[in-house]
Amino acid sequence: MVPQVLEDETLGRLEAEARAAKRGLWADANPTPPWEWRAARQRPEVQASPARVVPNGIEIAALLPNPAGKDEGHEQVVYSQHDRRTRGPRRLEAADRAGNVFALSETVPASGKLALTMTEPTMSLDDHGDEVLLIDAGGVVRSWVAYTGQEARSGAVLGFGR
């Protein structure tokens, strides 16, 4: 969404001054422009899953979409496995709303968790809200989570599942 165009340029000038002086909401390191904030408030808080989820024991347990400081190379996805036995590595991928993909190459331990820091720039978690799907090699969605921009506060770990 883009801001509305006004005949009077006063508000635009005041916004530019506030941005330059880092006043108000523009003081934040990663501010949400008012028009994006309003658009996000008009969307439903929880979206329906885009696909049928077929659980297989591994799920997305938590996300760190907005780490304190720099996002790139510091965002995390935590996977959990509820099966009591460790299985060999399975080809699993996490995909976001934009279709970006992050491959899971490590093994999730039996009845345990695996935290992966997304150091490769293949997928980033949007600070304004996103959804993440865990997809197996056959294209079956095994887990799905979504979050809003309000939930993605700086340094907040978002927990899902068990």
Please, how many helices? 2
The N- and C-terminal alpha carbons lie at a distance of 36 Å
Question: What is the third-level CATH name, the topology of the largest domain?
Answer: Immunoglobulin-like
The CATH level-2 architecture of the largest domain is identified as Sandwich
Helix-strand makeup class: alpha+beta
Taking all Cα atoms into account, the compactness measure Rg is 19 Å
- Unreliable residue runs: none
Number of strands: 8
How is the largest sheet built, in terms of strand order? Answer: 5-2-1-8
Give helix % range: 10-25%
Q: Give the overall pLDDT as a whole number.
A: 78
Oligomer: single chain
Identify the CATH class of the largest domain: Mainly Beta
Shape: elongated
Describe this structure in words.
This protein has 162 residues and is of the alpha+beta class. The protein has 2 domains: 10-42, no CATH class; 58-159, Sandwich (Immunoglobulin-like). It has 2 helices and 8 strands; from the N terminus they run H-H-E-E-E-E-E-E-E-E. The strands form 2 sheets. The protein has a 4-stranded antiparallel sheet, with no helix packed on it. Strand 6 (129-136) and strand 7 (141-148) form a beta hairpin. It is elongated, with a radius of gyration of 19 Å.
